[in-house]
Design brief:
With about 450 residues, the chain is an alpha/beta fold. It folds into three domains: about 90 residues, 3-Layer(aba) Sandwich (Udp-n-acetylmuramoylalanyl-d-glutamate--2,6- Diaminopimelate Ligase, Chain: A, domain 1), CATH 3.40.1390.10; about 210 residues, 3-Layer(aba) Sandwich (UDP-N-acetylmuramoyl-L-alanine:D-glutamate ligase), CATH 3.40.1190; about 140 residues, Protein-Tyrosine Phosphatase, Chain A (Alpha-Beta Complex). About 35% of the residues lie in helices and about 20% in strands. It is built from 16 helices and 21 strands. The strands form five sheets. It has a six-stranded parallel sheet with strand order 8-9-7-10-11-12, sandwiched between helices. A six-stranded mixed sheet has the order 16-17-21-18-19-20, sandwiched between helices. β16 and β17 form a beta hairpin. α3 crosses α5. The relative contact order is 0.09.
Length: about 450
């Protein structure tokens, strides 16, 4: 984490007040939550709609914070405490991260995409850790606040940082990548997330490609080579960067040759190596995420032998293709963290392909932020189900009801159930599960369908 004197911090954030009495005080780390103060932290207060963090500055310092920022338009700054008065606390936080990044002798990998960026981040960090000291974005710290905090949490002896970059509007990825100055970047894919804000998949592609704006000249861009929305737009840019691609087709630098779904993971081979790889993650779509991570690892001189070992030790962020067991012995794929049409179809494809189960059940909820065609996207999910591979469908939410509507002509009314109450859904669902059942639970984050997973386990 950042370790600087208060005098140095004051210079980095352009503080306007005299901090001479506290100039030699050492700052270690940054937090925006006064409840999580650790000794030596710099506390950054934000003005919210309902709560103003400035009212907790004195308490934060009493708990052990070395200093705090103070936004100049907030009245009555304390005169006897180590505070740095700045024009804007968020801007100061971002500028502090930007300058700290420039002082670090570190390589940075930036990862974005409509789906799979967190999984790709986790896999990339695991592979690079075979050879280097690696830090990565934790949780969902991937936005204009989270990424600066992640950068400020980097140790000075870290070799490589793997940073996830999220967005909801144009310009956000450009801001994040210019702050992080990555040496290599990945765009996992272009899906339908954020259609509500960006209007089209073309708009999403252009927003994701903003990540190249911060890529160092000669740096590596790893792109999904089967996505024309990316490949058509890369022309004219590739002369300034290295470009490598992954995908299912043989036109890519890395593509899978053979894929076998195992009980709790996947075995696969690729075109570029004689090794057979295994990882504790389900789904063909996650093989593509692994290929992107493998290209990054090879760029940083990680051997295929080390990659093989790194894949075995992957630890994914919770609720992403997480295989757990219910109280009746049923197997549950908990993929409740997020959903889009692309990722939902990929998850259904996985369930359809897995063998050894007498009954397969889908529990699907609303996919949010899909724009004016959201109902059609949900209908198509239901219409695309294979009645020979899916036994029952349970849906939750008003848009989930459209999935059920599309599925009824395919599966039949007796195999489709739709709910607006989670408890009612659970009470019905538990009657259909046993130790030979596989259940997929998937929806957008706002639907909080992990509650169904917990109910099945209890």
């Amino acid at each position: 984490m950042i370790r600087r004197s208060l005098k140095q911090i004051a210079e980095m954030v352009a503080a306007t007040n005299d901090i001479a009495p506290f100039a030699d005080r050492m700052v270690a780390g940054v937090t925006i939550d006064s409840r999580k103060i650790e000794a030596g932290n710099l506390f950054v207060p934000f003005k919210g709609e309902h709560v103003d963090g400035h009212q907790y500055v004195a308490d934060a310092i009493q708990k052990g914070a070395a200093a705090a920022l103070w936004q100049k338009d907030v009245p009555n700054p304390p005169v006897d405490l180590p505070i740095l008065i700045v024009d804007d606390c968020l801007t100061a936080l971002q500028e502090l991260a930007r300058k700290y990044r420039k002082e670090l002798d570190i390589k940075v990998v930036g990862i974005t995409g409509s789906n799979g960026k967190t999984t790709t981040k986790d896999i990339t960090a695991s592979l690079l850790s075979c050879k280097y000291k690696v830090q990565k974005t934790e949780g969902n710290y991937n936005n204009h606040i989270g990424l600066p905090l992640t950068v400020l949490g980097l140790d000075e002896d870290t070799d490589i940082a793997v940073l996830e970059m999220g967005m909801s509007a144009r310009g956000e990825i450009a801001f994040l990548t210019k702050l992080a100055c990555p040496d290599a970047v990945v765009i996992t894919n272009i899906g339908e997330s954020h259609l509500l804000d960006l209007g089209s998949r073309e708009g999403i592609a252009e927003a994701k490609l903003e990540i190249l704006q911060g890529l160092k000249i000669g740096g590596l861009a790893v792109l999904h080579g089967d996505e024309p929305l990316l490949m058509d737009r890369i022309h004219g840019i590739e002369s300034h960067i290295q470009l490598q691609t992954f995908g299912r087709s043989e036109n890519n630098d890395f593509f899978p040759i053979d894929i076998t779904q195992l009980g709790r993971g996947t075995r696969f081979t690729i075109n570029a190596s004689d090794e057979t790889f295994e990882m504790p993650i389900l789904g063909t779509h996650n093989i593509l995420n692994a290929l992107a991570a493998m290209l990054i690892a090879r760029h940083f001189k990680v051997s295929f032998e080390d990659i093989k070992e790194g894949l075995k030790g992957i630890k994914l962020t919770n609720m992403r293709m997480e295989l757990v067991e219910g109280s009746h012995g049923e197997k549950i794929i908990n993929d409740a963290y997020n959903a889009s049409p692309t990722s939902m179809m990929a998850a259904i494809e996985l369930v359809s392909s897995l063998e050894g189960y007498e009954r397969k059940i889908l529990v699907l909820g609303d996919m949010l932020e899909l724009g004016p065609e959201e109902e059609q996207y949900h209908l198509r999910i239901g219409e695309g189900l294979d009645p020979s591979k899916i036994d029952f469908l349970f849906t939750y939410g008003s848009l989930g009801r459209r999935i059920a509507e599309g599925a009824r002509p395919v599966l039949g009314d007796e195999r489709v159930f739709s709910f607006s109450d989670k408890n009612e859904l659970h009470q019905k669902l538990k009657k259909y599960v046993n130790n030979k059942t596989l259940v997929l639970v998937k929806a957008s984050r706002g639907m909080k369908l992990e509650g169904i997973v917990k109910a099945l386990q209890s």
